[in-house]
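FORM 12-B: Structure-to-Sequence Request
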């Protein structure tokens, strides 16, 4: 089952599962640790009754960006998180947050990032804004549609790489409708510059990107990238007790986002939809939380260029890189960008066990572990006819056909692993996670040292 029918089926399943799980597992406030039944405490009372610590004023957290990702390599740089808590009455929720990051990864990418978030800058509205420049000379490119695109272990890293530089500027507003239901609207500007990898040691070697261009799977008018403005609007339902580190509640959103062809004028205009549902169930109050996330996104009208298909549509990025599916922000342990299609669905589940608390440098800290399971699948293929045409063309050399099209059926991509989190003031989350895919067509393992929970 593929195409629009598969996408509709997946969306129905997501909504049905989400409603049943939310209805069947949310308990009265005394049992879950959240007040108002399924809902969380009011926005001005986010801490548990037994908590007495209140952070006030400014909190500056300069951090050397010394981390590691199997996808990107070692990270070298600096991060500054600045929080304003005011009189502490909203703690652990901050009033204003500013993040700045500049870093370089040893596998050829970089991050230059500025982010701001507040519910207090504009009365009654939440405003988020970010500006990012993300150069990458070795951007992972494994083709389209998951398992129909072969992963050949005898190919080097340069074969599965493209050069991509992304400039991304985003701004969003969220406001209330009724109770925990709200609206969201925003705009973003994207400029992609794409081409074959420029790493010198792979000069002259044929890459998968070269083959996709040669056989018409990537079109000439999109091969170098492009610029577009994306507009989005949707609804949000949020009852979490604390956004960076929830211990109860749920979050759901439905977004429509589209791009009119007003800059490049190459005929690429599209409308996409994205659905996500996240649920946080306290099993042992203050100690153990079961968290899961269900997501789907895909094109519902128009035609999108190849370079936007892996972009994760969300109002609040947990990680700066927004490429899915595969890797640190979607399917941990699976190859970065391994699963790309015109429609994609994925799920994540984990147990978050709070091990112990301590005070250090005048801040509140605790350590948590999170065993996890991730799953993703292409629900609607992208340019499947072009790929099949090459795979079935006897005039194309066998080695090229085997590199472009496997003829295999798409099935779920799955992985599992374990993480450790160090949390400061229930806002800053330092993370280490290690995942292993169930199928070696998705790689061997992934190790990620970064920030924030996955969801």
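FORM 12-B RESPONSE
SEQUENCE OUT:
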């Amino acid at each position: 089952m593929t195409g629009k029918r598969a996408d509709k089926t997946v969306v129905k399943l997501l909504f049905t599962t989400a409603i049943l799980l939310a209805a069947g597992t949310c308990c009265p406030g005394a049992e879950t640790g959240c007040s108002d039944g399924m809902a969380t405490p009011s926005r001005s009372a986010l801490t548990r009754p037994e908590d007495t610590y209140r952070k006030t004023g400014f909190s500056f957290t300069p951090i050397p960006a010394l981390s590691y990702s199997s996808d990107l390599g070692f990270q070298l740089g600096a991060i500054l998180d600045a929080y304003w808590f005011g009189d502490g009455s909203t703690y652990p929720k901050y009033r204003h947050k500013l993040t700045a990051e500049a870093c370089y990864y040893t596998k050829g990418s970089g991050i230059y990032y500025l982010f701001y978030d507040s519910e207090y800058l504009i009365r009654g509205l939440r405003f988020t804004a970010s500006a990012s420049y993300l150069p990458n000379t070795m951007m992972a490119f494994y083709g389209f549609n998951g398992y129909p695109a072969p992963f050949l272990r005898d190919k080097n890293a340069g074969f599965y790489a493209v050069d991509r530089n992304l400039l991304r500027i985003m701004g969003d507003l969220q406001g209330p409708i009724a109770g925990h239901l709200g609206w969201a609207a925003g705009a973003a500007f994207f400029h992609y510059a794409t081409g074959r990898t420029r790493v010198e040691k792979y000069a002259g070697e044929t890459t998968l990107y070269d083959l996709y261009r040669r056989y018409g799977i990537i079109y000439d008018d999109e091969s170098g990238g492009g610029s577009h403005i994306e507009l989005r609007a949707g609804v949000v339902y949020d009852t979490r007790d604390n956004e960076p580190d929830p211990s109860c509640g749920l979050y759901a959103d439905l977004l429509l986002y589209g791009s009119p062809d007003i800059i490049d004028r190459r005929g690429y205009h599209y409308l996409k939809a994205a659905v996500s549902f996240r649920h946080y169930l306290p099993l042992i109050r203050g100690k153990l939380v079961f968290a899961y996330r269900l997501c789907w996104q895909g094109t519902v009208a128009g035609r999108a260029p190849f370079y936007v298909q892996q972009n994760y549509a969300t109002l609040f990025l947990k990680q700066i890189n927004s490429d899915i599916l595969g890797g640190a922000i979607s399917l941990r342990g699976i190859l970065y960008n391994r699963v790309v299609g015109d429609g994609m669905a994925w799920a994540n589940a984990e147990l978050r066990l709070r091990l112990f608390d301590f005070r250090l440098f005048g801040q509140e800290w605790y350590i948590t572990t999170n065993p996890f399971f991730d799953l993703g699948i292409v629900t609607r293929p992208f340019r499947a006819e072009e790929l099949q045409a090459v795979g079935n063309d006897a005039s194309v050399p066998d080695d090229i056909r085997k590199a472009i099209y496997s003829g295999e059926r798409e099935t779920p991509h799955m992985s599992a692993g374990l993480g450790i989190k160090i949390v400061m003031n229930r806002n800053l989350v330092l993370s280490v996670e290690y995942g292993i895919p169930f199928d070696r067509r998705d790689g061997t393992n992934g190790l990620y040292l970064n920030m924030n929970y996955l969801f």
